UniProtKB/TrEMBL annotation:
It comes from Terriglobus roseus (strain DSM 18391 / NRRL B-41598 / KBS 63). Signal peptide: none annotated. It comes from the Bacteria. Residues 20-233 form the Histidine kinase domain. This is histidine kinase.
């Protein structure tokens, strides 16, 4: 138990260090991302240069992912906002547009709900970011990425369910059992094994649910991640319904 404690203290220290570094590089990264986007979409860009710009965008998006992935626990979260599933998913899909088309992945997004959910938007985007990055990794030879959303109930809560499905490699029973463990990865040096662990943490904090279904058998290989988010995280709901203090009572 003591070893586990020391280990968790070490992790906490590493986390704080990583998140302060990520925080510092996030703004310049975003600036470069926007500038590259302007270059990529400029009509006068010579076609011969396009592949270079796209490659630069892809690499940059990988750096951003690493930066945002480490920017987690120890950062003070911003205020919760009300957004639709479509807003959340489309924002992340746009970020990956270059990588998706370069990888020969066809995206089908359709949403049958416009319910607004209250959430920490950056955190939920981070979750979707991890799911989509994993889907791309699983479809090295192309495939289809499906994003869906509908109204749903879970654990007595009203909310929305977002599905992210891929026609990739699928995963073994062991991987399905272990994928939410920290540092569990099948990607050797290309993976951190932190993405889904962090994602689960974020979803739990929202009072939501994240689960996976995957198959490697025959023609129908692929993976479906199903993410439930309540209309309002329980913690936010509780603080909203707390009785307002009368200014006269506050000393
Ligand atoms: P990482 O991507 O860095 O390995 P994650 O925690 O995001 O870490 O994922 C853990 C493991 O789960 C991956 O290494 C991979 O084996 C498996 N996995 C996650 N998503 C998918 C997917 N869509 N298709 C196939 N395998 C997946």
């Amino acid at each position: 138990a003591e070893r586990a404690l020391i280990q968790s203290e070490k992790l906490a220290a590493v986390g704080r260090l990583a998140s302060s570094i990520s925080h510092e590089i996030n703004n310049p990264l975003e600036a470069v991302t926007n500038l590259l986007y302007l270059i990529a979409t400029d009509e006068v860009l010579p076609p011969s240069l396009k592949p270079y710009v796209h490659a630069a965008q892809d690499e940059l998006s990988r750096v951003s992912q690493i930066a945002t992935q480490t920017l987690r626990f120890h950062r003070q979260s911003n205020k919760p906002t009300a957004v639709t599933p479509a807003q959340l998913v489309d924002a992340v899909l746009n970020l990956f547009a270059g990588r998706l088309s370069n990888s020969g992945i066809h995206v089908e997004a359709s949403y049958s709900t416009a319910t607004k959910i209250v959430c920490f938007e950056n955190d939920i985007r981070q979750v979707l970011n991890n799911l989509i990055a994993n889907a791309i990794d699983a479809m090295r030879t192309g495939g289809r990425l499906l994003a869906r959303a509908h109204d749903a109930h879970h654990g007595g809560l009203e909310g929305v369910r977002i599905l992210v499905a891929d026609t990739g490699t699928g995963m073994s029973v062991e991987t399905q059992r272990r994928l939410f463990e920290p540092f569990y990865t099948t990607k050797d040096l290309n993976g951190t094994g932190l993405g889904l662990w962090i994602s689960k943490e974020i979803v739990d904090r929202h009072g939501g649910d994240l689960r996976v279904r995957s198959t490697q058998n025959g023609k129908m290989h692929g993976t479906v991640f199903s993410l439930f988010l309540p209309k309002e995280p329980p913690a936010v709901a509780a603080s909203n319904s707390a009785p307002l203090k009368s200014p006269a009572v506050v000393k």
